[in-house]
């Protein structure tokens, strides 16, 4: 399907170029963020009656995982409040550029220009997730740390380096944004080729150069584009467009498969499997182990999680890739040299992107709808202080849609598996032709099938 | 075409395994933070199920997904929930009374008959692999 | 630039104003906020309250962990649930000065019964009725001495069977006398010489039943279920859900008298129960177990309330 340019509509284009709608949403998000931190420190320690826990780990998470990421990629980054204070200092302005800024503006070190820091950050959060998700004060500390680290990063490094290289959330929504049906691309690369100012990257009086350190002229994948719309504001040639496109378009590209992104896929899959067992399973000892940080039981849980994410899953996947290549080589001896096992590994790992996204959606469906009703009392009494702002403080807990959630989960997981197989086949086709393609991809598909069966068993079994 | 028929078959063909005759089932479930013991109970469709909820440390509740039934028990005061298991499948039991930090994740299982959804889903997953492999060619 | 000013205003109002308003508006001067946590984590905060006689004491209550409940000992004020993350209110008023104990009435862990606080009610004493000490004090009974019964029935004594015997017995149930002692006296009475030992036990059961009413037994059962069953078991066998934890060491920071906690008494144990009098049972309930883990209920329940519980305890030995 050829992309449909939605910025062709003048109202849409004007709204996106106008700073106010985005700014207002961002400031509201920032207020919510601050309220969550405050609620963590002075609010009730009971998670399900605390704004911080309910609005971050239920509402925001549901919004992110069920709607924003699958349908609009990195759209959360466009309205995320975390980098705002830092950006204001860097830019010396809240809205349009005013020329002067504040900060050292250093370039991000070359050896960290990958998503490994984000992988590590997400892993750390995963190890402590049981406590983070249930204790308001811990959520408050984590959010405050985000704010401080983002601010400090902005004062030292250029642009949105925190977002691009440090934010653990950005790590996975960047990866999964490749699946989304929305993209920002230039309309005609030839126009960019003869445009010397490159105001999309350097900035202009109307806006800032791409805060994500991306050159829009050669942008082909969503993974690093935060949909902030600065390039829409700064391009003097009206050559930037926001397009609607088919799902998973970025996965069709045959180049640029990287190892750090592959491991992000394993981290997400491993975390989805672990949480499905620990959080949503019926085994209380696992939950107590995950919660009691510092004990021997927690250490076992931590080692198991790390082992699954960094050793077992990638190891099994490596075997699957290797076996597939061997099968292909036996059935169709290659004429020239093949790409290395490492390259194949990274390439095939793209099949895990739709698999992982669907796994997280399936996982999230369960606890989101079970806990969504906590929103009502928390709206009326965000700090658990006894208020009743909207009269809903006494609304009792009531799970929603629990009869249909298992069917939704099954559908989503099966869809993810089918999609992963399509991608695996396509990856194999980059190197092979004919029937051999199937054989090369088959072990990887088998891996995906086993993971899917495991998730089905844990979530609806 | 064949795939379509197979999919329909997986989804709709009734489970051939003969079901046990329905009767009265009585369970004693102990609730502690954050575990139900036994963590899963199995009944047949149509059974008249009675659950005695025994809270062993603090006040706990038990809510059944799909049936939308709940009961609360204080330690020392067993509470009883009685119902007819007229829906088949696997249903989560959730604690319905805040009982500590990990309360939202206090989960058990009620299995009524066989978990058809799971088996059909696994069947459809296998079919999805087939579809991904043979049917879609780009 | 006007746009920048407006933007800055928006930022300040929303980001700083809203959370600030939330923090400032938290306090409610009319009522005292009391937070409840499981005893090991602090219990009631504040644990000491004060009010003048005849003045209302408004309380707002919340729990920081699990379900609790608030009630005041020796007071008719109904218990009010204290729920996690939510607030409930109650208003207390006392017409006599003194030191009152407030306590948790919904089991919240092994140390639930230690969750108590005090209310100091100031004022001039107007009611000078003398305080009657419990019977074990008056009679100078040793509550901790073992009291095995020499004779036990071979089946559960039944008051109905006893009534069917049609005998007129002039010995009644007495607080200072154990069922074993009553049995001995009935056994040695001439009018029972043709009865079997078990039939004499049925007469003992009849004496018990005549000393109480179904309503009192129902009230006793209610109090037992809420306060005793968790340790002593719903069927009185000493196998309550909390019982397993009593074998372990008590709460850290609590100085014990040197005794270790012991398993809760089984009221179904005939040898031990039948040798105990109402006075001993009442005494144990009032005084508590001196470090064994048995709570002292003196400040909580009135003599009347303890009396109906004692009457109920015999249902673990006798049938009505």
Describe the structure.
- The complex is a heterotrimer of chains A (about 450), B (about 140) and C (about 325).
- With about 450 residues, chain A is mainly α.
- Chain A has 21 helices and 3 strands.
- Chain A folds into 2 domains: about 5-250, no CATH class; about 265-460, no CATH class.
- The longest helix of chain A is centred in the C-terminal third of the chain and has 36 residues, at about 295-330.
- Chain A starts with a strand and ends with a helix.
- The mean pLDDT of chain A is about 95.
- Chain B is of the alpha+beta class.
- Chain B has a domain at about 20-115: Immunoglobulin-like (Sandwich).
- Chain C folds into 2 domains: about 30-120, Cupredoxins -  blue copper proteins (Immunoglobulin-like, Sandwich), CATH 2.60.40.420; about 130-320, Orthogonal Bundle (Cytochrome Bc1 Complex, Chain D, domain 2).
- In chain C, a hairpin with a 7-residue loop joins strand 1 (about 30-35) and strand 2.
- The longest helix of chain C has 23 residues, at about 1-25.
- Chain C is elongated, with a radius of gyration of 26 Å.
- The N and C termini of chain C lie far apart (about 90 Å).
- In chain C, about 35% of the residues are buried.
Name the beta content range of chain A: under 5%
Helical stretch tally of chain A: 21
Mean of the pLDDT scores of chain A? 93
- Amino-to-carboxy terminus distance of chain B: 19 Å
Q: In CATH terms, what is the fold-level topology of one domain in chain B?
A: Immunoglobulin-like
Helicity level of chain A: 55-70%
Radius of gyration of chain B, taken over Cα atoms and rounded to an integer in Å = 19 Å
Mean pLDDT of chain B: 90
Task: Please give the CATH architecture of one domain in chain B.
Answer: Sandwich
- Going across the biggest sheet of chain B, name each strand in turn: 3-9-8-5-6
Largest sheet of chain A: 3 strands, antiparallel
Per DSSP, what share of the residues of chain B sits in E-state strands of 2 or more residues? 35-45%
């Amino acid at each position: 399907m050829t992309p449909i340019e939605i910025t062709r509509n003048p109202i849409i284009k004007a709204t996106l170029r106008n700073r106010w709608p985005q700014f207002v949403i961002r400031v509201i998000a920032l207020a919510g963020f601050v309220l969550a931190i405050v609620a963590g420190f002075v609010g009730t320690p009971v998670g399900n009656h605390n704004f911080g826990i309910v609005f971050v780990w239920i509402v925001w998470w549901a919004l992110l995982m069920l709607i924003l990421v699958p349908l609009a990629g990195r759209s959360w980054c466009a309205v995320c409040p975390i980098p705002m204070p830092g950006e204001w200092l860097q830019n010396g302005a809240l809205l349009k550029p005013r020329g002067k800024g504040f900060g050292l503006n250093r370039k991000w070190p070359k050896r960290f220009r990958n998503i490994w820091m984000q992988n590590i950050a997400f892993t750390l959060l995963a190890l402590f997730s049981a406590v983070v998700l249930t204790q308001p004060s811990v959520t408050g500390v984590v959010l405050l740390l985000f704010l401080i680290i983002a601010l400090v990063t902005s004062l030292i490094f250029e642009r949105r380096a925190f977002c691009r290289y440090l934010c653990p959330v950005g790590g996975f929504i960047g990866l999964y944004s490749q699946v989304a049906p929305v993209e920002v691309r230039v309309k005609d690369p030839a126009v960019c080729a003869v445009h010397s100012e490159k105001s999309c990257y350097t900035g202009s009086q109307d806006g800032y150069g791409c805060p994500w350190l991306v050159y829009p002229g050669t942008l082909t994948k969503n993974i690093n584009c935060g949909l902030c719309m600065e390039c829409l504001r700064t391009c003097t040639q009206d050559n930037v467009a926001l397009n609607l496109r088919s799902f998973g378009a970025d996965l069709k590209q045959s180049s640029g498969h990287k190892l750090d992104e592959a491991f992000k896929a394993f981290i997400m899959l491993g975390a989805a499997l672990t949480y499905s067992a620990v959080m949503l399973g019926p085994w209380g000892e696992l939950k107590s182990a995950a919660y009691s940080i510092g004990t021997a039981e927690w250490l076992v849980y931590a080692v198991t999680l790390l082992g699954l994410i960094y050793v077992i899953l990638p190891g099994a996947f490596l075997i699957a890739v290797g076996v597939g290549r061997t099968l292909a080589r036996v059935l169709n001896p290659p004429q020239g040299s093949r790409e290395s096992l490492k390259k194949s590994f990274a390439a095939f790992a793209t099949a895990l992107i739709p698999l992982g996204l669907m796994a997280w959606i399936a996982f999230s469906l369960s606890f989101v709808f079970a806990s969504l009703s906590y929103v009502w009392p928390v709206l009326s009494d965000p700090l658990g202080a006894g208020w009743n702002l909207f009269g809903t403080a006494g609304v009792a807990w009531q799970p929603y849609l629990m009869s249909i959630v298992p069917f939704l989960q099954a559908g989503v997981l099966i869809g993810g598996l089918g999609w992963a197989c399509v991608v695996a086949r396509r990856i194999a086709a980059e190197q092979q032709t004919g029937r051999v393609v199937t054989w090369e991809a088959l072990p990887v598909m088998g891996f995906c099938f086993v993971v899917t069966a495991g998730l089905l068993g844990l979530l609806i079994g | 075409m064949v795939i379509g028929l197979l999919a329909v078959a997986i989804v709709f063909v009734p489970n051939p395994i003969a079901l046990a005759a329905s009767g009265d089932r009585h369970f004693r479930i102990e609730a502690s933070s954050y575990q139900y013991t036994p963590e899963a109970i199995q009944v047949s469709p149509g059974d008249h199920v009675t659950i005695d909820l025994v809270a062993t440390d603090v006040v706990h509740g038990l809510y059944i997904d799909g049936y939308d039934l709940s009961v609360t028990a204080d330690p020392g005061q067993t509470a009883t929930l009685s119902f007819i298991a007229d829906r088949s499948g696997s249903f989560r039991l959730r604690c319905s009374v805040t009982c500590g930090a990990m309360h939202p994740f206090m989960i058990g299982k009620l299995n009524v008959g066989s978990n058809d959804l799971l088996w059909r889903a696994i069947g459809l997953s296998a079919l999805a692999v087939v579809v991904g492999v043979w049917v879609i060619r780009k | 630039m006007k746009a920048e000013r407006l933007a800055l205003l928006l930022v300040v109002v929303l980001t700083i104003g809203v959370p600030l308003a939330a923090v400032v508006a938290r306090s409610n001067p009319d009522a005292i906020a009391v937070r409840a946590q499981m005893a090991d984590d602090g219990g009631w905060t504040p644990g000491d309250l004060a009010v003048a006689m005849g003045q209302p004491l408004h309380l707002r209550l919340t729990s920081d962990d699990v379900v609790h409940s608030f009630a005041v000992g020796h007071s008719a004020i109904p218990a009010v649930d204290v729920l996690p993350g939510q607030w409930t209110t109650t208003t207390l008023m006392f017409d006599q000065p003194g030191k009152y104990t407030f306590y948790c009435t919904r089991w919240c862990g092994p140390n639930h019964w230690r969750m108590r606080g005090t209310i100091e009610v100031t004022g001039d004493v107007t009611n000078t009725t003398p305080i009657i000490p419990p019977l074990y004090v008056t009679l100078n009974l040793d509550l901790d001495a073992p009291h095995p019964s020499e004779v036990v029935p071979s089946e559960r004594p039944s008051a109905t069977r006893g009534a069917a015997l049609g005998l007129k017995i002039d010995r009644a149930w007495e607080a200072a006398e154990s069922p074993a002692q009553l049995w001995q006296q009935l056994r040695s009475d001439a009018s029972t010489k043709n009865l079997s030992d078990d039939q004499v036990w049925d007469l003992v059961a009849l004496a018990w039943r005549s000393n109480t009413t179904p309503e009192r037994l129902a009230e006793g059962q209610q109090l037992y279920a809420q306060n005793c069953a968790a340790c002593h078991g719903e069927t009185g066998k000493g196998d309550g859900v909390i019982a397993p934890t009593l074998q372990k060491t008590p709460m850290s920071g609590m100085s014990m008298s040197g005794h270790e906690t012991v398993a809760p008494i089984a009221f179904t144990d005939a040898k031990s129960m039948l040798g105990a009098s109402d006075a001993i049972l009442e005494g144990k309930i009032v005084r508590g177990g001196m470090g064994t883990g048995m709570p002292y209920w003196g400040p909580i329940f009135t003599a009347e309330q303890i009396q109906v519980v004692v009457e109920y305890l015999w249902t673990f030995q006798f049938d009505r």
